[in-house]
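TICKET #2291
ISSUE: user wants both folds in one file
ATTACHMENT 1:
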Amino acid sequence: MVLITLLSLFSFPGDGEQKIWFPHLDKLVHAGFHCGIVILGSLSFKKSGASLNTIFLGIFIFSALYGILIEFLQYVMPYGRAAEIWDVLANLTGASLGVLLIKKYFSRIGKLK
């Protein structure tokens, strides 16, 4: 998580060059990362004894606040990164997708037992 935070905040030489042409690829990366946070976080807290809905909500809120914090820090720090509302929306979309996918996974696991 620390590595992702650092990569999100600092600009690197050649960072503006786009080697792969795919419109809005960064938004897909945002969504994929936050989807992964929710899925992996939910799986790691499953055995904690808390209800699944509490786990899903907690991980979703963590993911959303983490994404907003990163965008805020990009806005206030002078390292050449720009904050975008579209990044926040991509983060929330990815987290929501993660909740839907992990709920579907747990519902299928319950049916198999």
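ATTACHMENT 2:
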Amino acid sequence: MYEKLDKLRDEVKRCEKRVADAQSKLKAAQEKLKEGEASQILSDVGALKMSPEELARVLELVKSGQLNQGAVANTSTDTKTTYTGSYSQDEEDLDETDEENKEDTEDETY
């Protein structure tokens, strides 16, 4: 007599399970992304070969907006490190990076 309701309840349970599975996959992907970003940041900072004090100074300049004005000279007296340039990429570089990321993502299976 209540077969239709039982079928609907079963459908709701299946949908809830799919949503729970999708949420767990999303959480795992977000954690993987966070770890990847942290790793990339450490790699980029390590490649600059700056002291912690120099890095702090550059980050202060970035935060205040002064880094976009050109060269940033090191105020430390014990090294001769000078940073010139900016952290932005050309639009072409960004487009190429986006295409590479799309290709990498398409190859992955979940």
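RESOLUTION: both attachments delivered.
EXTRA DETAIL ON ATTACHMENT 2: The beta strands are 72-73, 82-83.
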